[in-house]
Amino acid sequence: MFGAMLRYLIGISFFADSRFPWATLTINLLGSFLLAWLTSYVFKKVRLSPHLSTAIGTGFVGSFTTFSTLSVETISLFQDGHNFLAMVYVLVSLLGGLTMSHLGFKVSKEVQKS
């Protein structure tokens, strides 16, 4: 619930007037980094119960990010004739999400070394 509210606030605060779904893209990329970093560093450093870790990871971060909105926005771009933008959006979302997850794991390893 809190993740979804934060997603909504970011969307209306920074990207309200954009035709391109910058809000969802930004949120999903941040969420990919955050979930990787939380699971590979924070949850190992801070002793939390498995239930609380799951609540934070899949509850907060899961509701912050959104695959369903990405899907609907992609279809809307296609329906509005923005085929190239739709394909770029999907590719950047997928490759960017994987890159940000990788970066989250990498940052975690670097922080653990120091």
Question: What would your notes on this structure say?
Answer:
Fluoride-specific ion channel. Important for reducing fluoride concentration in the cell, thus reducing its toxicity. It is a multi-pass membrane protein. By secondary structure, this protein is mainly alpha-helical. The chain has one domain. It is built from 5 helices and no strands. It is elongated, with a radius of gyration of 16 Å. The model has no long low-confidence stretch (mean pLDDT 91).
Estimate the mean pLDDT confidence: 91
Are there runs of 5+ residues with pLDDT below 50, and where?
none
Helix content: over 70%
Q: Could you spell the SSE succession in H and E letters?
A: HHHHH
Strand content: under 5%
Q: Mind summarizing the main beta sheet?
A: none
**Secondary structure: number of strands:** 0
Question: What structural category do the secondary elements indicate?
Answer: mainly alpha
As a whole number of angstroms, the C-alpha radius of gyration is 16 Å
How many alpha or pi helices?
5
Cα distance spanning the termini? 35 Å
Number of domains: 1
Q: What's the overall geometry? A: elongated
Subcellular location: Cell membrane
GO molecular function, one term: metal ion binding
Function: Fluoride-specific ion channel. Important for reducing fluoride concentration in the cell, thus reducing its toxicity.
Keywords: Cell membrane, Ion channel, Ion transport, Membrane, Metal-binding, Sodium, Transmembrane, Transmembrane helix, Transport
